[in-house]
Amino acid sequence: EEHNITYQAYSPLHGKGIATSPVLAKIAQVHGVSNQVVVMRWITQQGIPLVTASDSLQYDQEDLGMFSFELSDEEMVAIDG
């Protein structure tokens, strides 16, 4: 921030444990989205740009779901955990 440099999340959903994380699953259930969408929201809510890629309209629409809700401070901390 001091030097006005922005970094970008590249392949943010390739981390192990995203699909099976109980913390993400609980948060995802509350918001009616997938664990992956919760992770994308967590990334963007920190002001980090990310790029998704898909050849599926269904996945593209799911990805856009990251803008349909906001994570609470408690949820952000739980994900940081």
Describe the protein.
The protein is mainly α and 81 residues long. 46% of the residues lie in helices and 0% in strands. The chain has four helices and no strands. It has helices at residues 22-31, 35-45, 57-64, 73-80. The protein is globular and about 40 Å long. It starts with 21 loop residues before the first helix and ends with a helix. The model has no long low-confidence stretch (mean pLDDT 88).
Provide a quick synopsis of the model.
This protein is 46% helix and 0% strand. The chain is mainly α.
| Rg of Cα set | 13 Å
Q: Approximately how much beta-strand content do the residues carry? A: under 5%
Helix/strand order, N-terminal first: HHHH
- Give the N-terminus to C-terminus distance in angstroms: 23 Å
Q: What gross morphology would you assign?
A: globular
Biggest sheet overview: none
Oligomer: single chain
What would the keywords be for this entry?
81 residues, single chain, mainly alpha, 4 helices
List the helices and strands and how they pair.
Elements: H1 22-31, H2 35-45, H3 57-64, H4 73-80
Helix pairs in contact: 1-2
